[in-house]
């Protein structure tokens, strides 16, 4: 008699971070993504006083943490960082559009691609000021 049950999952399901390729993918994605963002005349002004090395470091932390990776985000709360900047739904749409465009160049499944965008969209209210001015 055959056992038709699937084998037990001994290691747990891989995180979204692991499924997309971990640190290497996030590193490449952040660099490529911010080339696009900083070339956009509507988004670039938000980063005019930001050091690119720090931006890349903080974004690697953010994406790792947001996608269940091992690296923790050490920056200020998102609502605090973005408060008073006047980020609109149009800005957010452009930002996420560049992210999608960038991620499509990496070897991700459609499901993983949707999951990454969905995770990032969960932060939209904080980024656009849904928390008010200081939380």
List keywords for this structure.
mainly alpha; Globin-like; 7 helices
Written overview of the protein:
- The chain has helices at residues 16-20, 22-39, 52-66, 78-82, 89-103, 110-121, 124-128.
- It is mainly alpha-helical.
- Residues 1-10 and 131-135 have low confidence and may be disordered.
| Count of discrete alpha- or pi-helical segments spanning 4 or more residues | 7
Largest sheet descriptor:
none
Strand content: under 5%
**What's the N-to-C terminus distance?**
61 Å
Count of β-strands: 0
Which stretches of 5+ consecutive residues score pLDDT under 50?
1-10, 131-135
SSE order, one letter for each helix or strand: HHHHHHH
Given helix and strand content, the structural type is mainly alpha
CATH architecture tag: Orthogonal Bundle
Nearest-angstrom radius of gyration? 17 Å
CATH class: Mainly Alpha
- Total domains: 1
List strands and helices in order, with pairings:
Blueprint: H1 16-20, H2 22-39, H3 52-66, H4 78-82, H5 89-103, H6 110-121, H7 124-128
Provide a concise account of the structure shown.
About 55% of the residues lie in helices and about 0% in strands. It is built from 7 helices and no strands.
């Amino acid at each position: 008699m055959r056992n038709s049950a699937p084998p037990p999952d001994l290691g747990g399901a891989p995180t979204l971070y692991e499924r997309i390729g971990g640190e290497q993918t996030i590193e490449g994605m952040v660099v490529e993504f911010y080339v696009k963002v900083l070339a956009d005349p509507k988004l670039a002004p938000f980063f005019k006083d930001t050091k690119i090395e720090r931006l890349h470091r903080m974004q690697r932390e953010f994406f790792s943490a947001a996608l269940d990776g091992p690296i923790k985000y050490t920056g200020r709360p998102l609502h605090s960082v973005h408060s008073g900047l006047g980020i609109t739904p149009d800005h957010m749409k452009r930002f996420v559009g560049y992210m999608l465009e960038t991620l499509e160049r990496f070897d991700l499944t459609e499901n993983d691609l949707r999951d990454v965008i969905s995770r990032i969209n969960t932060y939209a209210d904080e980024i656009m000021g849904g928390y008010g001015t200081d939380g």
